[in-house]
Design goal:
Elements: H1 13-18, H2 26-36, H3 45-72, H4 80-111
């Protein structure tokens, strides 16, 4: 198993910035979600595809921010400490997206 930082560790900052985005299979996302949900909870294919796209964007954003920190520090290789430095920003990003998603759900429910 890869540790969270092992995905980027040792990659050149330029390579991280130019790399294509990761791919998450909806089936994998469904399995991950089922680990944290009640056994009776079902996840639709559309929800799994949407979550896979969200995870892709999140990982891309983390990689880009870590690579930028690496470049700002004039280092050529992304290391775990670069990810650690951007974690507070990512937590705020996730919270902001969550609030926007809830607001959109409330708006759709009220307007329909």
């Amino acid at each position: 198993r890869l540790q969270r930082a092992d995905l980027l560790q040792g990659m050149e900052a330029e390579a991280v910035l130019d790399a294509p985005g990761p791919k998450f299979k909806p089936e994998t996302v469904t399995k991950i979600m089922q680990l944290h949900l009640d056994k009776k909870t079902r996840i639709s294919q559309d929800s799994a595809r949407l979550l896979a796209e969200y995870m892709k964007m999140f990982v891309q954003e983390a990689a880009h921010r870590a690579a930028q920190v690496c470049q700002q520090e004039s280092m050529g290789t992304v290391e775990p400490e670069h990810l650690e430095k951007i974690l507070p920003q990512l937590v705020r990003l996730v919270c902001a997206v969550h609030v926007l998603s809830l607001s959109l759900c409330v708006y759709v429910c009220v307007c329909m």
